Amino acid sequence: MNAKRFFLVVTAMLLVGLLVTFAPVAASPNPQVFYQTPTADADGRIFYVVREGDSCTTIFLLTGVPIETLRELNNLGAATKILTKL
């Protein structure tokens, strides 16, 4: 193999290596959301602070408080539409 051909092969291998090393990586299509399970205080009460994106269903799944009870405690009447994200 002559020097020119050797140089071209080595250069091509280096370029392929650089392209593979620095190629952009696609982000995960559905990033995971982590929720911290609330724990009871000394009186046995559980306080949950609603975060943006929470729904009655996610609060129910985290706390065990039925959706109907959440509606009553938060004055959400029968006409209030409950949207679930599950």
From TrEMBL:
Residues 1-27 form the signal peptide. Residues 46-86 form the LysM domain. Gene3D superfamilies: LysM domain. It comes from the Bacteria. Keywords: Signal. This is LysM domain-containing protein. It comes from Levilinea saccharolytica.
